[in-house]
Structures are given as C-alpha cells and as structure tokens.
Design goal:
Helix content is about 65%, strand content about 0%. It is an all-alpha fold and about 80 residues long. It is elongated.
Length: about 80
C-alpha cells in the first residue's frame, strides 16, 4: 500500500478506523482503563501523550506475550502516524 503512494501524485495514506480500533483493543486488552486516554491522544494528534500512555501499558504489562503485543501496537501506530 505505501509503495503506491510514490506512483500516484496527491495521494494521502490513511489508516482506517477499523484496523486502528482493532489494534487499540488488542493492545489494551488487559488494561482497558487506559484505552480512553490512548483514543484521545490519537484523535487529538498528540504523539507525545500517545507514547506516554503506551509506555504506561508497557510498564504495567504482566506477560511477555502482552508486552510483545503492546510493542507491536506502538510500532504500528507510530509507523502510520501520518495516516491517522
């Protein structure tokens, strides 16, 4: 998908809400109380707050599996930040 941006002028990449929501739900599965703050940070385009809130998820993770899932979520969102 991203490669197509180079072929078509004036095209903007957009991260669809379905996949973003799915990623948020997976990352916050065991910490749902943190979900709202992450949604707000993304909606407001506040990358700094987003990173702080996700780092809180990371610091409070209780298993390696959860930690991996949260780190993948963080990378996914940050790599697609311009499309949000």
């Amino acid at each position: 998908m991203k490669e197509g941006l180079n072929w078509l002028p004036k095209v903007k990449q957009v991260l669809d809400k379905y996949h973003l929501n799915k990623a948020i739900l997976q990352a916050t599965g065991s910490q749902p109380e943190r979900r709202h703050d992450i949604y707000v940070a993304i909606r407001n385009g506040d990358r700094s707050t987003f990173e702080k809130r996700v780092n809180e998820l990371i610091n409070n993770s209780t298993s390696e599996k959860e930690l991996k899932r949260i780190k993948e979520f963080k990378r996914y969102v940050l790599n697609n930040w311009q499309g949000i």
